[in-house]
Amino acid sequence: MATAKKPPTRRPRSPKPAPAAATCGTCAGSGETTTTIRVGRKRREIAATQTGLCPDCLGTGTA
Ligand SMILES: [Zn+2]
Of 60, 6, 8, which is closest to residue 30 (Cα–Cα)? Predict the structure, then answer.
């Protein structure tokens, strides 16, 4: 059985995309998320919202 010699494969160095340059999709780049406040045992929504730190980007706006 003749084994064919494989030429050494060279991996071309591919440029990586710039890290942390994309806008966070959860907060749309603002770094904050708006949550509707729920009250009571039935978790009724009231007409109020509070802003919190985005859990995905932790306030940086980029993810
Ligand atoms: Zn975010």
Answer: 60
What's the CA-to-centroid distance between 40 and ligand 1, angstroms?
28
Domain ranges of the chain: 22-40+47-63
CA of residue 27 to ligand 1 center, whole Å: 4
Q: Residue 29 CA to chain centroid, in angstroms?
A: 11
Encode pLDDT of 15-45 as tens digits.
Answer: 765 554 689 888 888 989 888 888 999 999 8
CA of 34 to the centre of ligand 1 (A): 11
How far is the centre of ligand 1, averaged over its atoms, from the C-alpha of 58 (Å)?
A: 6
pTM of the model: 0.45
CA atoms within 13 A on the CB side of 10: 2
